[in-house]
Amino acid sequence: MSFANTPPPPYYAVIFTSQRTEKDSKGYKRTAELMVELASKQTGFLGVESSRDHDGLGITVSYWDSLESIKQWKEHMAHQKAKEKGKKDWYSAYITRICKVDRDYHSI
Amino acid sequence: MSFANTPPPPYYAVIFTSQRTEKDSKGYKRTAELMVELASKQTGFLGVESSRDHDGLGITVSYWDSLESIKQWKEHMAHQKAKEKGKKDWYSAYITRICKVDRDYHSI
To answer: Domain named ABM: which ranges (chains A, B) (predicted)?
Structure first.
């Protein structure tokens, strides 16, 4: 994964910080890829950036045009199912933060 | 590094997404640690979360009580020096985004 090619602000960001358990690597990877694919087809999706270190701490930031688009993705059935599985098996802890991006600076 | 123990929203976030070069691992690591230590002593600092994957793509999110605190940290002399070095040697590309966090959900 790489940089999200977001438009000039304002736009919205969902910061998802999570600690992976060691359970079910294959199922997790498959679902994570599917969620990126599905999210990118949603109305208002602007991009996603993701990183997970060798200790299993990850930060994924998805970017959206509006709070309404974020809400619709939150309520998407496949996404809800993935989140349930995440809570149960894949993550020992996580925090989701909903933000409005007011400014950005690019070097690329 | 782990989760930032942020207070109830609203608060502010600086999302820094970067691609590391392969240059100067030691110098980079030392400065990155020093910047976290220095930032955490600044007025208005609420916490930081950071992850870098095996391909060198990293996301660091620092949390602050106000835009004024973010501005002061931006102008901090040691931070400015580190950023210059970052642009020159450590990062092939980066994006900084300044956000207001309006909502969050914790599982921890």
So the answer is: 20-84
Report the Cα B1 to chain-centroid distance in Å: 12
Checking if the pLDDT of B107 tops 90, the result is no
The first and second tokens of residue B16, run together, are 């820094």
Tell if the CB–CB gap between A104 and B94 is shorter than 8 Å. Answer: no
Q: Collect all residues from A whose CB is shorter than 8 A from any CB in B.
A: 1-4, 6, 9, 13, 15, 17, 19, 49-54, 57-59, 61, 87, 91, 93-108
Chain B residues close to A9, C-beta within 8 Å: 97
Separation between Cα atoms, residue A63 and residue B30, nearest integer Å: 31
Among A68, A36, A44, A51, smallest CA distance to A3 is for A51
Q: How many residues are present in chain A?
A: 108
Domains of chain A: 11-101 (3.30.70.100)
pLDDT band at A108 (very low <50, low <70, confident <90, very high): low
Query: pLDDT exceeding 90 applies to what percent of chain A?
Result: 94
Neighbours of B106 (CB within 10 A): 12
Q: What is the mean pLDDT of residues A59-78?
A: 97
Q: Is the Cβ–Cβ distance between B66 and B12 less than 8 Å?
A: yes
Q: Are the C-beta atoms of residues A63 and A91 closer than 8 Å to each other?
A: no
Angular region, A5: left φ>0, alpha ψ -120 to 50, beta rest? beta
